[in-house]
Automatic annotation (TrEMBL):
Name this protein carries in UniProt: ATPase
Domain Helicase HerA-like C-terminal: 34-480
Pfam family, one: HerA_C
Organism: Salegentibacter mishustinae
Signal peptide residues on this chain, from the entry's feature table: none
Keyword tags: Coiled coil
PANTHER family named in the record: SLR6007 PROTEIN, UNCHARACTERIZED PROTEIN YJGR-RELATED
Coiled coil spans: 442-469
Length: 509
């Protein structure tokens, strides 16, 4: 058996799942593609998380598209974070250009055009089904992680949430939370301190400033009602295809805090809502996070710990997470170590820093006698990648330089009219796009403060009226006393007495 035959058998054995799978492409060796060395990813392991990495223009987004549409056809719903705005074409079938058929001849199976059922979602100013969450749903601990507050400030947030629970004050949006911070600092300070202890105004001021900073990234659109139900991400169409939910995020690239806030909230909600799945044949939901470095760009150590914990635990809920970024080093090593499927497109070695990054990236893949991984990373073409997966028993498979299949859907964006048509057909839009501003902490506290101020004004007016009445009574009494005194003074004067005695003497004579 020569080296080529040995290589084909090696790959065939490594990527030969017994259950359902995604046919990703065919393995290559020395620039030759071997259709008999098919690279098949077991559907059963798609909840073990993964990474799609590579330099700009090497085909990461198309790989994401391939995985998403194949998962959809297997009945697995998908959530895509579309930061660049180039994934909407998955809603329309490919035009089936000749070069796509030529590519699939090399892979050994025919090219077929297809589309996926799509739902467009948004947390920003872009059109789509609006995703929201209430402040109460975040809770004090998760909110503290997002705001990166001190332990003392975290304690204050815990007190505020407890006070609101005890006094039936719903915390729905950031307006409610800011009002509560102002209330515990001013009007409600005495009441709060009697029940829960002293609260520092300096600490509440610091929390308020951090909330304002979060608002400046557009968070006020995300916090509020109606809360998005994560079970709506798991819908399927009449054919049994899983919906591809595309989160439109092209206008938040410069707002990493908002992006990480949304992602952490979503993952936490999925984890708490979804039941334990055990070892199922396919995932319940798969999330693809494009430009994943935005999550970690400004995340604190505490927030990174929270993300790492969720990544570890959410697999048991039947949920897979896939990070899409330029370099594996963009993802923290603690998270990177949890990823089962790695698809590494080409990296470019323009600087010493690039060469160092390539060396580190090569160390993330299994050692192979067929490839010099470090050199292979710089010589891959567009639509080619190094693939390392897990087999059905969870063991790392052999490294395979792979020519990837082409997307079945359109490899271009939808027109504005096509987008509008799909959004108009959405069944979720009427459910979530109605703005709700029911009575919550902000309105209830304002009402409470107004009532307190009205009561105080009334009591003050009554006190002033009483004082005026007392003053009038005192003045009247004083004048009466003065009159009586004057009369007494006249009656007891010597002149008056002599006059009276004179009159009496005359009468007696």
């Amino acid at each position: 058996m020569d080296k080529t035959e040995e290589f084909v058998e090696h790959i065939s054995q490594a990527y030969n799942p017994k259950g359902d799978y995604i046919h990703l492409g065919a393995a290559m060796l020395n620039d030759e593609t071997f259709a008999d060395a098919a690279v098949k990813i077991p559907l059963k392991t798609m909840n073990r998380h993964g990474l799609i990495a590579g330099a700009t223009g090497t085909g990461k987004s198309k790989t994401l598209q391939i995985l998403a549409e194949n998962l959809s056809q297997k009945g697995v719903p998908v959530l895509l974070m579309d930061v660049k705005g180039d994934l909407s074409g998955i809603a329309k079938p490919s035009a089936g250009e000749e070069f796509l058929h030529e590519r699939h001849k090399k892979l050994g199976f025919p090219f077929e055009s297809s589309k996926s059922p799509v739902e467009f979602l948004t947390i920003s100013e872009q059109n789509g089904v609006r995703l929201r969450a209430t402040v109460s749903e975040f809770g004090p601990i998760l909110l503290s992680r997002i705001l990166d507050v001190t332990p003392t400030q975290e304690g204050i947030l815990a007190i505020i949430f407890k006070y609101c629970d005890d006094h039936h004050l719903p915390l729905l949006d950031l307006k409610d939370l800011k009002k509560m911070l102002q209330y515990v600092t001013d009007e409600g300070r005495e009441t709060i301190e009697k029940e829960y202890g002293r609260i520092s105004s300096a600490s509440t001021g610091a929390i308020l400033r951090k909330i304002v900073a979060l608002e400046q990234q557009g968070a006020e659109r995300f916090f509020g009602e109606r809360s998005f139900e994560v079970t709506d991400l798991t819908r399927k169409d009449k054919k049994g295809y899983g919906y591809v939910n595309i989160m439109r995020l092209t206008d938040i690239q410069d707002k990493p805090k908002l992006f990480s806030t949304f992602m952490l909230s979503l993952l936490a909600e999925i984890y708490t809502t979804f039941p334990e799945e055990g070892d199922s044949d396919k995932p319940k939901l798969v999330l693809f996070i494009d430009e994943a470095h935005l999550i970690f760009k400004e995340a604190s150590d505490v927030l990174l710990d929270q993300i790492e914990s969720i990544v570890k635990l959410i697999r048991s809920k039947g949920v897979g997470l896939y990070f899409v970024t330029q370099n594996p080093t963009d993802v923290p090593s603690e998270v990177l170590g949890q990823l089962g499927l790695k698809i590494q497109h080409a990296l470019r070695a323009f600087t010493a820093k690039d060469r160092k990054a390539i060396k580190l990236s090569a160390e993330n893949y299994p050692i192979s006698k067929y490839y010099d991984t470090k050199n292979e990373l710089t010589s891959l073409g567009i639509g080619e990648a190094l693939v390392s997966a897990l087999d059905e028993k969870g063991r790392p498979s052999a490294l395979a330089a792979t020519m990837l299949r082409a997307p079945m859907s359109r490899m271009d964006i939808l027109s504005d009219s096509e987008l509008e048509e799909l959004m108009f057909q959405s069944k979720l839009r009427s459910k979530y796009n109605e703005e709700i501003d029911r009575e919550s902490a902000y309105e209830l506290l304002n009402k409470k403060i107004e009532e307190a101020e009205a009561k105080e004004a009334k009591e003050k007016a009554e006190a002033e009226a009483l004082e005026r009445k007392k003053a009038v009574t005192t003045t009247s009494k004083s004048n009466s006393n003065k009159t009586q005194g004057a009369i007494i003074k006249v009656l007891t004067s010597a002149t008056f007495i002599r006059g009276v005695m004179g009159v009496l003497n005359k009468l007696l004579k």
